[in-house]
Amino acid sequence: MQVLEQRPRTITSVLRGDPQRRPLPDRQVAAGLRAQLEDGIFSLWPNEPREPVTVRASAFTLNPTSTEGTSTGQFRGLLLNQLLRLLAMGVTISDPFANAIEAWRSEDAASPLLAQVDQLDAEDLARLRADVQSHFTTLERNLGPLPASWEPRSAVRAYQRLAGGQVILRDTIDLSLGTTTSERASVVLIDVTTSPLGASAERIMRYHALVQTLRTGVAPLRSAAFSSATAELWVLDVTNELLQRGVDDVLHVLSKVATA
Amino acid sequence: MTTLLHRRITPRALGELISHAPVDTVTLTDEHLTSFAARLRGVSTIDHRRLDAWAVERAAQPIDAFHWTPQTAKRALAGAALRRGGPEGNVLDAVRQEIATHLERATAGWARPGSLSWWLANSSEVVRSVTAAEASASALQLREVALLIPGDVQVASTDAYYDVPGARTSLRGRRDLVVTTPTGRVVLRVRGGAPGKSAGPGLRADLFIDAASDPLHRSAQRIIGLWPDAGVMLSVDGTMSDLRAGARDLVRSAVVRRAQQSKLAA
Question: Of B133, B148, B163, which marks where a domain is finished?
Fold first, then answer.
């Protein structure tokens, strides 16, 4: 694993790397991973789970110091994701908080979380505004330019059914670059978090890579996590070993559900 | 007997679904269409109604009134951007140009209230950017599907529309890509999320509407519904039994909708 502490060149330049040194896309690995997951689930539930079990990236968050679970942390994360979408489109953002709220409202005006933000008192609102501004500054400074030719996609959703539809893997990737149809592997997945990176970040990176591989049938090139709290960037090259560990992580989460 | 097939999206599986599509296609006769119109006329309606695969899939649940959002605007913009930019073009730039064209149309006074151009012109830069993000992601997904297909594939210029004579009903069938084969055509429809239990009936409804809107009322050889978020695809052949099932489901959805409206009125 390549760990870059503080001040990477820019996130995108590190992730894309040298085009000539990228490997060929692995189009064979997905079927094997799916079979392993199916076998693992069968050993946990020989007759399939009675109720559908849904696994999300949040199932891998075990960092006790994380503030993502709290309301403020959740609002901040959601607002920063909206700003990431705008940055990926090359928008000049003048007022991060107002722009993020506007983007969020345009997508999901009926969101109960948005209603909660509207009900915050002046003090909490000011704190959230300052928080978002500070995280946005870190993100904008480190992200770097995103040329349209890199085909940025934000909030990429994935939904995989296993065990006859009784186990569902759901995922949303904050930012994806590249395409599965290129001659060389070029897809990089970026998870942006407002918490410091911990052990769970690595599991989430593996989960993103695994679900993306199952969804598209092509293993991505890299999976990364960026913390707007510490400006740390973690990058993992997606290998067979990493995907195997992703399978183990998912089966570990499912085994906890099965024994609960 | 249904011809519904379920496959994972891979270049090989998609190629086989297209190349192995049935060669013999069926044609809806005037009798078929007259009988269909008579059945819909039997389901009275005060307002003009519009039926589509979504109405079939959600027949028992009320459908919210349509309004523009980045999610509802993305499909129209994505298809237009792909036609503008071509398969090798820069998708994001094409989406931006498409939005600029809509704004020009609105500025020139050609956009009627409620249209996409009108909505875009009355939205802020931030909302237009979120719309561009959604549309470019959708266009990239559509292009990735198109690149998996060997042969002559085109982005559909419009959805399929058919106005049922005397029944105050118009049908709209979704189609995103059309593959022209030596013996006919294969229609592809790309949707977000994952297919539900009624995805098959929805696909058959689109098959029927596509055939009804064809100038010669010839059915497509096969219709393929792709759900790239879930990595799966379903297909239905253009057989008479599938066309009949599609027509029946459209009539049923009109009946259920009328029953709901009567309940609300009571």
Answer: B148
Collapse the DSSP code of B5 into the 3-class scheme (helix H, G, I; strand E, B; otherwise coil) and give the result. strand
User: Which chain A residues touch B129 with a CB distance below 8 Å?
Assistant: 85-86, 89, 91, 103
My answer on whether B191 and B160 are in the same domain is yes
Q: Residues B157, B26: one domain?
A: yes
pLDDT, one tens digit per residue, over A64-101 is 444 445 578 889 999 999 999 999 998 889 999 999 99
pTM: 0.90
Q: In terms of domains, do B161 and B254 share one?
A: yes
Question: Which residues lie below 8 Å from residue B251, measured CB to CB, with a gap of 6+?
Answer: B36, B39, B40, B43
Contact A242, A236 (CB under 8 A): yes
pLDDT tens-digit readout, B210-224: 999 999 999 999 999
Among residues B98, B123, B148, which one ends one of the domains? B148
Residues from chain B that touch A86, judged by Cβ atoms under 8 A, are: 126, 129-130, 133
Q: B96 with B139, same domain?
A: yes
Based on the fold, state whether residues B182 and B211 are members of the same structural domain.
Answer: yes
How deeply is B109 buried, as exposed, middle or buried, from its count of CB atoms within 10 A (0-12, 13-18, 19+)? exposed
Residue A122, Cα to own-chain centre: how many angstroms? 31
Specify the number of domains making up chain B.
Answer: 2
Q: Which of A218, A235, A208, A146 has the alpha carbon at shortest distance from A184?
A: A218
Nearest to B127 among A102, A157, A159 (CB): A102
ipTM of this predicted structure = 0.87
How close does chain A come to B138, measured CA to CA in Å? 9
| φ and ψ at residue B199, rounded to 5 degrees | -65, -35
H or E element that contains B237: strand B232-237
Which two tokens mark A151? 């085909």
Handedness of CA B236, B237, B242, B243 (dihedral sign): positive
Residue B165 backbone phi and psi in degrees, to 5: -60, 130
Longest dimension (CA), chain A: 56
Q: For chain A, which domains are there? A: 2-62+148-259 (3.90.320), 71-143 (no CATH)
Give yes or no: residues B79 and B132 share one domain. yes
| Torsion angles phi and psi, residue B234, rounded to 5 | -120, 150
pLDDT, tens digit, 9 for 90 and up, residues B133-161:
999 999 999 999 999 998 889 999 999 99
Q: Is the pLDDT of residue B44 over 90?
A: no
* Beta carbons of A107 and B140 less than 8 Å apart: no
* Same domain for B159 and B206: yes
Domain that holds residue B131: 70-148
- Measured over the CA atoms of residue B89, residue B95, residue B96 and residue B99, the dihedral's sign is positive
Contact B129 A161 (CB under 8 A): no
Same domain for B106 and B18: no
- Note whether B231 and B34 are within 8 A (CB): no
Contacts (Cβ under 8 Å, ≥6 apart) of A2 = A234, A235, A236, A237
